[in-house]
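Escalation from tier 1.

The customer reports that the assembly of two entities below gives different structure tokens on two consecutive runs. Tier 1 could not reproduce it. I'm attaching the input and our single run for tier 2 to review.
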Amino acid sequence: MSTAQSLAPWLDTYRSSAAAQFADAEAPSNTEEVWRYSRINTIDLNGYSADAAGDSSTDPMPIDPMPIDGAAAMVVIRDGHVTSLETTDALGKATVQVISEHADGEALLNNLRGEPTDAIAHLHDAHVGDVIVVDVPRGAHIEAPIVIDTYSNAEGGLTCPHTIVRAANGSSVNVFERRRSGDADQLVIPVVELDAAPDARIGYLVAQQLGPNTNSFEHHAANVEQQANITSGVAAFGGSYARTRADIKMAGRGANGDLLSAYFGDGDQMLDFRTFQDHDAPDTTSRLLFKGAVTGSAQSVYSGLITVSEDAPGTNAFQTNRNLKLSDGAWAYSVPNLEIEQNQVACSHASTVGEIDEEQRFYLESRGVPTTSAEQLLVSGFFAEVIAMFPIDAVKVELQSEIDKALAADRAAQDDALVKEEVSS
Amino acid sequence: MSELVITDLHAKVGDKEILKGVSLTVRSGEVHAVMGPNGSGKSTLSHVVTGKPGYTVTGGSVTLDGVSLLELPAWERAKAGLFLAMQYPTEVPGVSLESMLTASATAAGRDPDVVRARIAEEAESIGFSPDLIKRPLNVDLSGGEKKRNETVQLGVLDPKIAILDEIDSGLDVDAMRAVTRRVEQATNRDDALGVLAITHYKRLFEELEPDHVHVFAAGVIQTSGGAELAEELERTGYSDYVGLVEVDDTPEAFRNPFGDATFADSLNLHEG
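Tier 1 run:
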């Protein structure tokens, strides 16, 4: 496996101990609330091998489809292991390291995610690849994004990327991850930990562009200290069953945490989101906006929970999930929840599942815009709001056009199906 | 010379017949006013002719320069040269005036590159703020601003026939003058616009004098005449025509997943 492991014996121990615990752990099941509506029962966690993942050398990794100009650092990770790590002057005093070379590595790993709570977390820990640690020192402001590109493509492979971002007091940083895989049937279990010290700001965005036969379980754990700010986004397009769990904890007074997502599901894929906004300090704010569309026979699940503890008076917490259903066969499920132990709070949650608005479509059509173009404009417009809020400016146009392309492909496929129906009848 | 010919048009919403045999011909350069009491089905006429979903045509025909419109989807009717200025222009979050008109120009085989400049010209001619043009369509615009926005579109799209559905509602005096002057100007040139103006009040005609006035009630045109008919209606009101039939001509509202799409708005839904 990794050549880096000899540098950090603790990591070998960590992995083997986790492997033993995974062997003993019970597989998650649809009967548990957090797995309701998911496809967990169809995925054999024992059916994938990290060794297979390390053996895809015949597959030349595609070039990054859209390089980010002016990135402060660019990390390329293949099958869980770093193949290239370049930094520029824009990185300033911040550092980007593999955890085995990090002085505090052992203390950092899963510090925010915490002890595994299920078999999938054990499996991640047992096969965790080269963990990337981004450290931003006190007062440093890194404007240009740090880019991490993960890719894997081995039949039956298992890869477990892991990213840790630590912004020290009064610092700021933007991190963009591109999560990719090839067409092979594989499993990806990424973990992302975001830690903002007092007055720090972290902008994070992952573009999930996994291959059509990849199942994934991604877990984000974020911690926001006093007067700090984290904006964390997920743009999810790929995968077969692709789940993202995002936890954000407002741990210090005046902390603000925003969770954002744009997702587009087609074919028979399922995009599954579970969010937890945890308010544990006074005068904290969290805003969540997840907007998605499903077409074909795709499915989406959104389930979110806002928790406000006794220690968090003055909390403002918002949770909004909007879904567009673009075909008869698609299905979107949305369930927002609140759990509040404090009276002095302002919380709201709202969720909708709807089709393209007829009145809006007619307005555009009455100006001579063809039906398909009108729908594309409306769906683009639907997503534009949340994409504008994403923290990484350099990829907004790309993400918007990815949605436009997916929609255009879907509409073309529906037109083809109609033509075939007419021909055969 | 263009000609919109509506012949014995019947249409219903659900089981309720709203249009009960409407016949009307509008030619280039003519201004027709359709006046009538609230709930008479005036707006239904504009919706059925332009192809709004929610109505069933049960009889009659509508042609524009000989082309039958009723079989065409709404966008092809627009492409054929028909325009509808709506009574309540729909808010379309996330879509700009420019992107909509660019898509329209592309579909019509017109030069999409001139759309931006044409919007600016039209906006200036009626005193519509350039800042408002950049907003998502009709979102957070006042009633009067929405009507100016419709008029900008009319100018850019340059249709053969325009149906103006209560374009005077929500307009202050200055806006009314700007909008009606722009329309009037379009009716007075070589390739002149034909106008079918649906309205409740005569004040629209101060700048836009009608050649023909039709009184519409109970799903049919009750009587037609010249501009003097509007004067008479102003004096007598619609009392002769109300009570014939009162109908609700608004189709069942569609669910609107975008309607509250601005983040700030959505947050206020369930405050507390």
